[in-house]
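Holo prediction — iron/sulfur cluster.
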Amino acid sequence: SALTDLIYSGSNAVAGLTEGAVNDAIAKYGEDKKVSFGDTAYFLPTIYAATGVKVSRLGDLPACVGVLKSLITNKEELGDALNAGLATAVGAEILEALKYVDNENPYAEDSGIGFVPDPVIRSLGVPLVTGDIPGVAVVLGKADNGADVAKIVKDYQNKGIMTFLVGDVIEQCAEAGVKIGLDYRLVPLGHDVTSVIHVVTVAIRAALIFGNIKPGDLPGLLAYTKERVPAFVNTFGALDAVTVSAGAGAIALGFPVVADIDLGDMQVPGALESVLNHEETVKKSLELRNIKIKVTEIPIPVAFSSTYEGEIIRRGDMQVEFDGSRVDCFELVCTKEASEIEDHEFKLIGPDFDQMEVGSKQQIAYIVNVAGKNMQSDFEPVFERKFHSYLNCIEGVMHTGQRDMIRIRISKATFEAGFRAKDLAEVLYCNIMNEFDAVVDKCSVTIITDGVECTRLRHELAIPTYDRRDERLESLTDESVPVYYSCIMCQAFSPSHVCVVTPERLGLCGAVSWLDAKATNQLDPEGPCQVITKERVIDERLGRYEDVDEAVAKFSQGALEHVTLYSIMEDPMTSCGCFECICGIEPFSNGVIIANREYAGMTPLGMTFPDLASMTGGGVQTPGFMGHGKHFISSKKFMKAEGGIERIVWMPKDLKDQVSERLNKTAKELYGIDNFCDMVGDETIATDPETLLAFLTEKGHPALGMDPMM
Ligand code: SF4
Ligand code: NI
Ligand code: NI
């Protein structure tokens, strides 16, 4: 058929190109020259996932070219032609990898970013499972009318969809003023059509990271991407044979392609479809992938979408700033009796934003009063922590911090669009009512911008409330509560992963505390968080319970039988892939090192975060390695079975700074050690085991005197 002819012509062209480029590179650099994309533990991910081959040098590539060619059968069947599409993907991956030979940043001159590092993919885990990112769009080519593609991309952005751009659509979006960057969920990959492989490897690495797909299991890989990665492709402008064969590769992975030219009888319903009217592109694309958008329609003058969550507002663009580190500011949820609240009431005490000097620093406090039959004061901090995300989702509003240490910036553009205090209140009201309707019946919002009132209420109302909550949190230990909770939110991507969430061990993503899990269970009793009883203890030291084992076996559909809460060596908890940190054994010191996702450097284990992270994940147990949340580091239950936090010998400086106060406090309480963090190495001290050991010896680190872990 015309379609298969076109696919084969593209695949054959790419095969020829790839073979030539590989031969040239070997002639130039020799077979032993290293080839790597950089920040990844998955080699050339497409080749690795599909065949299990770990390409590391140019000499590994000719065999891959052989595999590539074997995928091109030139047979009429569509299934065969789709395999040829995979061959194109392999070819594109090799051609792109060759750009990285002898050049760490081949994309320096392109407006795209090229290869996407592993940590970025891990950071997408939680938003993908919660539906916060409902889908992934690949927008490719050059539109006849740039404004049309910009409008489509902006629409995806407002729906929270993660979009990757390939080709001149990058400039078309930029020219139309669409905000571009990972922070805006709009990632330009590059201009060569081969750069589309960089989004393909995102999907493929998701299967390896979260899905525990074994390298070489091609059918498993294709089933995973088809069923679990909600991606689709939109092409703009004329299609050449290479693009069509790349599109066949996308279809083989389960990603439908919507083209804006008339493909006539080359169309394949559900997989390759023409949509000539750009007004229909988004709707059709979402339908093909069955993507449902959570709509929070909020009547405010600017956009509200999770896409804007990471937006930064610079000093020069800011209309007004509220800065809790310099003046009294706070945010607070208060539980009231139903009779005390008039639903949807808004009160403003003090001037509105238009009465504030441009660029000035002001005071603000907002109190969200809630009432409901099933409301518990334990949920107050759970709601309150959401404010950060609610306010950040407003286009042109930036929020950092929490409680009475908040900072908020409102951009000039957003102010000029008419955004005022009542709109901020509306965002809080609508989101609380939308997300927590199972427990909140009535809600009202008071915003205070009057300086004297802010100061008075902070001291008289807010601080005493926070203190009371902190006391409650302190008293919440694994021993003091009657039950734990499971979380299986990540099963969308890691089918057998279960987190057991306890007061002293939050979910490894860092986003689900015991109180969060309790609230989630209350809000949706059939949902992802279920009660786990803890009545039948088997081993206190390891944190082994019959109840926990049963729950884990049930929620993992039998994939897991035993899990301990406090050991990294014996049946440790599984990891899905979106952990904030990973710790691993450091054999020379009897200790463990910890690396956080943001850390880009080397660790004393000779592995980077991506390398370490690849040791665990996909819902399997890996003794000696464990993913965990940042907060867990200062917990008295952190690998308690192996001796606890005394085992920590190294972590990146940034992470150490973040956790030092709490970690020092725990070390003092547990072992009477002062300033424990001063004994813990970091990258400014050592990135190799010998230097680290010398440092630990000098400091008299307690791990050195402990029993070997293995
Ligand atoms: Fe995923 Fe565990 Fe976090 Fe739940 S607690 S969202 S399962 S990492
Ligand atoms: Ni004060
Ligand atoms: Ni996860």
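READOUT: The chain has a mean pLDDT of 95.
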